[in-house]
Amino acid sequence: xxxxxxxxxxxxxxxxxxxxxxxxxxxxxxxxxxxxxxxxxxxxxxxxxxxxxxxxxxxxxxxxxxxxxxxxxxxxxxxxxxxxxxxxxxxxxxxxxxxxxxxxxxxxxxxxxxxxxxxxxxxxxxxxxxxxxxxxxxxxxxxxxxxxxxxxxxxxxxxxxxxxxxxxxxxxxxxxxxxxxxxxxxxxxxxxxxxxxxxxxxxxxxxxxxxxxxxxxxxxxxxxxxxxxxxxxxxxxxxxxxxxxxxxxxxxxxxxxxxxxx
Length: 262
Known about the structure:
alpha+beta, 5-stranded mixed β-sheet, 5 helices, 16 strands, FhaA_N_sf, DUF3662 and FHA domain-containing protein
């Protein structure tokens, strides 16, 4: 039986392993003996990309470009001297994998390696999301102003009016069931009940970092950030989706309506 269909993903993993071997003169082999291995992380990143596909106007497939890897405290401490080099290699290999699938991403693939409290040795967690910021940053601060995306994600007539810089009084916002209005700014807005969220909602059914809205001046992409209870749009659970005016977003017991004026 031919192994033809398997060749492309395997070749990415093989190239990744070969680069790791020469990266720090075999130090990786010692660091990862008996604990989590980088190939396992790359495999998980590939699965996350597959699981978070969103179809854009024009039939293109958008997948996450930002991957946060949480390692156990023990693994993280052992890896610390090599974390930056490993993140760079993971990002390059993930970009190769995405390219071979002919999927689309915003700008560069970003990988960040963090300490995951509560994870047992050898365990890790991958969080994938669409990140549209013009600068690499761990998380957008309130008022964060992202630059333009590295490719025209929404050039098939699916935008909400004039492109950025062409005037127009568009007012893109979320409206809660009790009438509260939350205007959306250009860039990324994290919704949650924790301190890191830009839009904080006092709902115990909402995770601390529950979902993210990325507004590039053309459309808004909603991405679930691995929340406990999930994110619903018009009654359907979603991982990442481009919003349309009038869409109903449900997080926990909170319902927000997506509105566009102007």
